Amino acid sequence: MAPALNRIEILHWLSETRRESLDDLWHEADRVRKEHVGDEVHLRGLIEISNHCLRQCHYCGLRAGNRDVTRYRMTPDEIVACAKQARDFDYGTVVLQAGEDEGLSLNVVAQIVKRIKSEASVAVTLSLGERTLDELRAWREAGADRYLLRFETSNSDLFSNMHPPRGGGRPSRMNLLRQLGPLGYEVGSGVMIGIPGQTYEDLANDLELFRELDLDMIGVGPFIAHPATPFGQAEPAKESESQVPASELMTYKMIALARLLCPDANIPSTTALATLNITEGRELGLQRGANIVMPNMTPPEYRVYYEIYPAKACIRETSDMCNRCITGRIEKLGREIGKGPGASPNLRRRTRGTATKLEKLEAKPVGLRRSRN
Ligand code: SAM
Ligand code: SF4
């Protein structure tokens, strides 16, 4: 693994505000991105297959307590049709995302995964929340390649307050995350930035946990308050020295630092970032360490109801429009559209288990230490 920035350096960068110094951080993150994952930007077609959810997360508009949401669940035929469209757009992966929906039972999801693998031949990422080990095992056996489960914050008190446990003796989110690798999944996780009560120390711990978990994919995005949630109804978090702002700048810093600490991971430039800066948020994410974009493939009649936060980017567009917009933006940056499933070099290294060219690259030091004074 590449030598890590130490904790003092991480904390220093998280609170740095000088533009010339930050340019060094962006430059180094971009250099490491190019060296480790190359110029290809892999596209993952995001299909939001259901907005039913039985959880009460204090941050999310899909929480069960929000009675103002029109709930939907896509049929298996609709989901497979979207996956075929993703293949026709040349995306190597589809991401099936949903609330924690009991209607998406073990058998229903297993059948959908099998059909996508045989009829559309793309990699399948699941992001269906905290599910049982039996379900996760069955879906992996059905052919699912990856599982995405953000730990949201490494601060366990903050997490349990904002994500009330489901009960029933089910494994914790962190436990599940540690089980996914042994089940054979490529593992994705991540955090929100600017959660009320989140400190710079918490973000430094998040970055250290990304590294410890040896993640294949790391998604970081700003927290955006939804008015129909406890966080949206509370007083906005007071600006203070310790409270992390839910800002665009803080998101870029987390992307860049995640790239330096986990150089072989896939890192998306997220929709939440594009929501804060629709003009160039995605592009700046890609220039500051990210190498993945997830164009929305959810049919327009459903995507308006997948409102996890307000004014979500691309909520009124069609899959065709998102495809054209995103590929155009990537080409303008001079980057290539990735071909194939785009597994992370991290996974390739783990599964090969022998010294490779990649590992020799990893031995090269990350040049950045402290910003200029
Ligand atoms: N239900 C699954 C879960 O919770 O893992 C997957 C769907 S959930 C909507 C996907 C992600 O949306 C969460 O992991 C969380 O980080 C993000 N999210 C939810 N509410 C958000 C908000 N208000 N602002 C930014 N991101 C949010
Ligand atoms: Fe449900 Fe996921 Fe939203 Fe929590 S974050 S309410 S589990 S959809």
3D architecture notes:
With 373 residues, the protein is an alpha/beta fold. The chain contains 16 helices and 8 strands. Strands 1, 2, 3, 4, 5, 6, 7 and 8 form an 8-stranded parallel β-sheet that branches. Helix 1 crosses helix 8 and helix 4 runs parallel beside helix 5 (133-142). The radius of gyration is 19 Å and the shape is globular. The structure holds S-adenosylmethionine (SAM) and iron/sulfur cluster (SF4). Iron/sulfur cluster binds at residues 53, 55, 57, 60, 62-63, 99-100, 129, 308. S-adenosylmethionine binds at residues 59-60, 62, 97, 99-100, 127, 129, 149-150, 152, 192, 221, 223-224, 226, 272, 308-309.
Notable features of this structure?
8 strands, 42% helix, globular, single chain, alpha/beta, 373 residues
Question: What is the topological layout?
Answer:
Layout: H1 7-15, H2 19-37, E1 40-50, H3 76-88, E2 93-98, H4 106-119, E3 123-127, H5 133-142, E4 146-148, H6 156-162, H7 173-180, E5 186-193, H8 200-213, E6 217-222, H9 230-233, H10 248-261, H11 271-276, H12 281-287, E7 292-293, H13 300-303, H14 319-332, E8 336-337, H15 345-352, H16 357-362
Parallel strand pairs: 1-2, 1-7, 1-8, 2-3, 3-4, 4-5, 5-6
The structure holds S-adenosylmethionine and iron/sulfur cluster.
Class based on secondary structure composition and strand pairing: alpha/beta
**Mean of residue pLDDT?**
91
Supply Rg. Answer: 19 Å
Poorly predicted runs are 354-366
Strand content: 5-15%
Which kinds of small molecule does this entry bind, naming each only once? S-adenosylmethionine, iron/sulfur cluster
How many strands?
8
User: What is the helical fraction, as a range of percent?
Assistant: 40-55%
